[in-house]
């Protein structure tokens, strides 16, 4: 892949932005209000959520199903978990997000030079509020929601939907994301070049190997593929 890049696709969560309040902070509040000791944490919530999600599901319904199951597994009734999920939803302001370091600079630089889109695994109801909270909802010519508009990344279909809308070939496109499993693997499956925002230990061999690795999105503004 040595031809000129014409388009850049971005992931959203933990690539461009992150929540101001962590999942563990909100869970602690919810457990306290319900009056039970914590029986799962944010890592388990995020790690197991896919067990309860089918394509097109509303994240609020998925969360209730997940938390209800966690509660039953811990010896509580499902209703306890569902109450915790409802408190979580009420407390989780989807627009209360902040840019990751370098993200705003990268967007400013790249939107002037390339066609720009987004491929994100997430509920449109949720993701649109994050974009609005950051004030960047008009920066992307196309936004494809994996799990709703198409299967979740790393399936190649959400990437192809975005490129069809942009009218750009896969080998003229780079995708930027923090998840090796979803973003790098998905980009390669779709025939795109990958830029991996490194998320910690890189001692293990990566398969597939990203075309480019950046430590922050400040590096992205320098166009590592150029």
TrEMBL record:
<dbReference type="GO" id="GO:0016787">
    <property type="term" value="F:hydrolase activity"/>
</dbReference>
<keyword id="KW-0460">Magnesium</keyword>
<protein>
    <submittedName>
        <fullName>HAD-superfamily hydrolase, subfamily IA, variant 1</fullName>
    </submittedName>
</protein>
<dbReference type="InterPro" id="IPR051400">
    <property type="entry name" value="HAD-like_hydrolase"/>
</dbReference>
<keyword id="KW-0378">Hydrolase</keyword>
<dbReference type="InterPro" id="IPR006439">
    <property type="entry name" value="HAD-SF_hydro_IA"/>
</dbReference>
<dbReference type="InterPro" id="IPR023214">
    <property type="entry name" value="HAD_sf"/>
</dbReference>
<dbReference type="GO" id="GO:0044281">
    <property type="term" value="P:small molecule metabolic process"/>
</dbReference>
<comment type="similarity">
    <text>Belongs to the HAD-like hydrolase superfamily.</text>
</comment>
<dbReference type="InterPro" id="IPR036412">
    <property type="entry name" value="HAD-like_sf"/>
</dbReference>
<dbReference type="Pfam" id="PF00702">
    <property type="entry name" value="Hydrolase"/>
</dbReference>
């Amino acid at each position: 892949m040595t031809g000129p890049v014409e388009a850049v696709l971005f992931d959203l969560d933990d690539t461009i932005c992150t929540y101001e309040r962590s999942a563990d902070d909100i869970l602690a509040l919810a457990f306290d209000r319900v009056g039970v000791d914590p029986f799962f944490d944010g890592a388990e919530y995020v790690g197991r959520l896919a067990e309860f999600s089918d394509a097109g599901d509303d994240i609020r319904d998925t969360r209730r199903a997940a938390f209800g199951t966690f509660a039953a597994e811990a010896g509580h009734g499902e209703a306890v978990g569902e109450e915790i999920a409802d408190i979580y939803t009420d407390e989780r302001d989807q627009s209360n997000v902040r840019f990751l370091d370098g993200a705003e600079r990268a967007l400013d630089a790249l939107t002037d030079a390339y066609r720009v889109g987004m491929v994100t695994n997430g509920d449109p109801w949720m993701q649109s509020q994050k974009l609005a909270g950051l004030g960047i909802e008009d920066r992307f010519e196309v936004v494809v929601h994996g799990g709703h508009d198409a299967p979740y990344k790393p399936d190649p279909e959400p990437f192809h939907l975005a490129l069809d809308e942009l009218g750009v070939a896969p080998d003229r496109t780079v995708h930027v994301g923090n998840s090796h499993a979803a973003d790098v693997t998905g980009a390669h499956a779709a025939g795109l070049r990958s830029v991996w925002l490194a998320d910690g230990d890189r001692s293990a061999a990566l398969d597939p190997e990203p075309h480019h690795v950046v430590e922050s999105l400040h590096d992205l503004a320098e166009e590592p593929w150029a």
